[in-house]
Design goal:
About 40% of the residues lie in helices and about 15% in strands. The chain has about 190 residues and is of the alpha/beta class. Strands 3-2-1-4-5-6 form a six-stranded parallel β-sheet, with helices on both faces. Helix 1 packs across helix 7 and helix 4 crosses helix 6.
């Protein structure tokens, strides 16, 4: 069985533990594979937040492309994918997607998702949000294939560790692709106990 490809982009915003968890969940799936695109900012943030090098994270993906390889498969609409997740998504990347400024492979891949109407999930990370950030998110959210999913903590599942919180958010980010991670705790499941 051929696995469906999810392009996973990572930028320099805070939140690289979410990237790692998403890649692990995709790897554990029988249906999906991960194609990883990392900006230089993501590589720097990875060192700061997790004391890890990009090479270690690349091992969690099925395929990797250089951010500068603008002619790679993900830059074309003829490259078959189930869609794209950008986790974390910086405000710079959000602005580039919003304006169609596709000057690297990650932005070009997101542009392809827009033109091909494939799912594009943006785990936007910033606080507080400026009016420009909100405008960019609002305008992209009007497109039916774009999901703006800020990595918000939830507490209804009574998480006991930071890892449990990260897993819940990562699983939520993958839901638009139809990937049901075993770590996800739905509100419906919790309400039975209330």
């Amino acid at each position: 069985m051929t696995k469906k490809k999810i392009i996973v982009g990572a930028t320099g915003a805070s939140g690289l533990p979410l990237l790692v968890e998403c890649l692990k969940m995709i790897r554990a799936s029988d249906e999906f594979s991960a194609i990883l695109l990392m900006t230089r900012g993501a590589e720097l943030t990875l060192r700061h937040e997790l004391n890890m090098e990009a090479e270690e994270i690349r091992l969690l993906a099925d395929e990797n492309f250089s951010i500068d390889d603008i002619g790679a498969g993900p830059a074309s609409g003829s490259y078959p994918t189930a869609g794209m997740l950008i986790v974390p998504c910086s405000m710079k990347t959000l602005a580039g997607i919003h304006s169609g400024y596709a000057d690297n492979l990650l932005l070009r891949s997101a542009d392809v998702m827009l033109k091909e109407k494939r799912p594009l999930i943006l785990a936007v990370r910033e606080s507080p949000l400026s009016p420009i950030h909100l405008r960019n998110m609002q305008e992209l959210a009007t497109l039916p294939n774009v999901h703006i999913v800020p990595p918000m903590l939830v507490f209804y599942n009574k998480p006991q560790t930071i890892e449990a919180m990260v897993q819940q958010i990562a699983a939520r980010l993958l839901m638009p692709f139809g990937l049901q991670a075993k770590e996800f705790c739905s509100w419906q499941g919790m309400t039975r106990n209330i």
